[in-house]
């Protein structure tokens, strides 16, 4: 999907994944300064290289990462959903209106508002964490059936390769989910700071 500078107002408010990525801006998702994705990939590659060079048991590593994922992610997902709910259900109409000003990109084209970008960050975090948790449970089920164990009818190199590919994907999703937490927390902080500023301004104007 090519990133466009503006959309008509109806398309800008669609609840699709494509529109979510548009609001987030694909360039920002892979930016080192704005997204933890590159950092997550780097950490994952380093971990896989170190564990492989030390001849660690890939099946054991995969089992431990899977257990950590399915035990920790539900709490993180609950935290992110709570933050999203607080912002969506926020009751200060004047403040929400101030965040909902659409930037004009053309005569009939608009850029996402600040409120849309705040909601998009939380929504993206929820989606990533949900996908990671679902993938973790699938791997846990596979491990219970020994589908990635060396006991299946595969030679050792192939089994190790399958395990490490799975480790890479699961660990990448897990680290990305973790590294998204500071971004969502800062979003809540920014939202609260903005609300406090609007209250202060209103009080001073009343005086």
Backbone structural class? mainly alpha
In angstroms, what is the radius of gyration?
Answer: 21 Å
How much of the polypeptide forms β-strand, as a percent range? under 5%
Q: What summary fits the major beta sheet?
A: 2 strands, antiparallel
pLDDT below 50 for ≥5 consecutive residues: which ranges?
148-154
Number of strands: 2
The portion of residues assigned to helices is over 70%
**Cα distance spanning the termini:** 51 Å
Shape: elongated
Describe this structure in words.
By secondary structure, the chain is mainly alpha-helical. The protein is built from seven helices and two strands. The chain has helices spanning 17-24, 26-29, 37-53, 58-88, 93-99, 114-144, 156-206, and strands spanning 103-104, 110-111. It has a two-stranded antiparallel ribbon. Strand 1 (103-104) and strand 2 (110-111) form a beta hairpin. Helix 1 crosses helix 6 and helix 3 (37-53) packs antiparallel against helix 7. The termini are far apart.
